[in-house]
Amino acid sequence: MTFETINEPVEVISYFDVKNMRPLRFRWRDRAYKISHVNGVWSNPVGQTKEYHFHVATQHSGSFELIYDSQTLHWKIGRVCVDE
Length: 84
Hints:
Layout: E1 2-9, E2 11-16, E3 21-28, E4 31-46, E5 49-58, E6 62-69, E7 74-82
Antiparallel strand pairs: 1-7, 2-3, 3-4, 4-5, 5-6, 6-7
């Protein structure tokens, strides 16, 4: 399994409650993706803010790393799994 670094802005629909955040769907390059499973979640401090990383799987399009910036409130795609 190989990952390609992307780092592009993406639109995400996510679920928030008091303790949790979970991405549900995202739109990237004019295509909509429904997330079927969140494989992993981790966070990294970046200066004064924190980035939340989500390794997600979609039913027909593979897996992606979505990143949420808690300071700017923006999402981006960090990496995409590329099948070789």
